[in-house]
Design brief:
The chain is α/β, with parallel strands linked by helices and 390 residues long. It has 13 helices and 9 strands. Strands 1-2-3-5-4-6-7-8-9 form a 9-stranded mixed sheet, with helices on both faces. The longest helix is centred in the N-terminal third of the chain and has 22 residues. The protein is globular, with a radius of gyration of 24 Å. The termini are far apart.
Length: 390
């Protein structure tokens, strides 16, 4: 009799537990990074090439004839950290096939822009978006300083902030795709041109150091990037670079990103000194407009003095070394492309990165684009990215 009573008590206990579990509310997993989609646009297949390279798409047109499909672009808001370590609402875009499955995931880093209206979340397209017409999910952050964070200085060429914003955007996009019921490949490509090329290496460096368990990079394709910042700034005095806006943009961005506390009065001449907030931090003007404002004598003579006599130069040079991308050991394969006649970001930036990575035994290839300047190499970069990923 006691055995029967004991068995009855056990069965009753199991029934009570089962009822309790059944009545528990189902708590869905909440997104950690994704916040919302605030705008969407669909690009028909016949508009994709024009959106990508304007009228300069002839080389792509014949190769991709009949292969392109409609794409959807969503403006995404997500959470990341600003340089102060504060959780902040950032923005970017995701593009993907309007119909069908996703074959590849591409984390694309956008090139330098000056005005807010040129940011991905405003333009709703970047050149790498063409990959979505061939089956890829393309993820692009605005970076800190554009989109929802346009009130902040843009952390231009700052490795830590760039990588943080991009990787968190990737996590947010994954959460969003899960909500849509879309399955994603395990490995991703990382790519970008100009500033985007440097940002691509910044993402790779940070992922391989801190996120290797959750982000798996298949290949990095980087074009025309300023990887060696110290060499570039050493060249400012001796070479007439065709794009001067990047110099104060980088000084302001690194000052904010690395909390340098620079005295701009010892670095900038008038009228830049009194107008850098309006011309650069406000994001009202394009790079061409900023270049025209700057003129040729916008750097203080102390900028070229010995760092031992100018502590501002010492702080800046330390940051330039820290945010250069030539002295580390990549794990995923890297493909570098660069125009040999580039006067905006000289070819030696890619050569220095290639030489350093090759000496470390890394999987890296360098493809010079003979005779091409910075703008002239863009079309061949796009063709190469399309061929590599598709």
């Amino acid at each position: 009799m006691k055995k029967i009573e004991h068995l009855f008590i056990q069965l009753l206990s199991l029934w009570l537990v089962a009822c309790t579990e059944a009545n528990k509310p189902i708590v869905e997993e909440q997104p950690s990074f994704f916040e919302s989609i605030v705008d969407s646009v669909v690009y028909p297949a016949n508009e994709i090439l024009v959106q990508t390279l304007g009228e300069g798409y002839a080389k792509l047109s014949s190769a991709l004839s009949g292969r392109l499909a409609d794409i959807r672009v969503d403006v995404l808001h997500y959470y990341t950290l600003d340089p102060e370590g504060k959780r902040t609402l950032a923005s970017g875009i995701v593009s993907y096939p309007a119909q069908g499955e996703i074959d590849n995931v591409v984390l694309a880093e956008h090139a330098t822009v000056g005005s807010s209206r040129e940011a991905p979340s405003e333009a709703k397209f970047v050149i790498e978006s063409i990959l979505s017409s061939l089956g890829s999910l393309v993820i692009v952050t605005d970076y800190i300083g554009y989109g929802t964070t346009s009130a902040l200085p843009h952390t231009y060429l700052h490795v830590g902030s760039t990588a943080q914003a991009s990787i968190d955007m990737f996590f947010a996009a994954k959460e969003y795709m899960k909500m849509l019921g879309k399955r994603l490949p395990d490995e991703i490509y990382v790519t970008g041109y100009s500033q985007g090329g440097a940002s691509a290496l910044a993402v790779q460096k940070t992922v391989e150091a801190n996120h290797a368990d959750s982000v798996h990079i298949k290949k990095v394709i980087a074009g025309g990037g300023p990887y060696d910042l110290l060499a570039l700034f050493d060249d400012v005095e001796t070479r007439k670079l065709s794009q001067t806006a990047f110099i104060p943009m980088a000084i302001i961005g690194l000052n904010y990103g690395d909390k340098l506390g620079l005295d701009f009065g010892k670095l900038f001449n008038e009228p830049l000194l009194s107008n850098y907030h309006e011309w650069i931090i406000s994001k009202k003007y394009t790079l061409s407009e900023i270049n025209s404002f700057l003129g040729s004598d916008f750097l203080n003579s102390s900028f070229f003095s010995d760092e031992t006599t100018n502590p501002e130069i010492a702080k800046l040079r330390s940051s330039l070394v820290k945010n250069s991308l030539t002295d580390w050991t990549p794990k995923a394969p890297i493909r570098l492309l660069h125009g040999t006649k580039d006067t905006t970001v000289p070819f030696y930036c890619s050569q220095h990165a290639y030489d350093s990575f090759k000496a470390k035994g890394c999987k890296v290839d360098l493809f010079p684009i003979p005779g091409a300047d910075h703008g002239g190499a863009v079309a061949l970069y796009v063709i190469d990215v399309v061929s590599q990923i598709n």
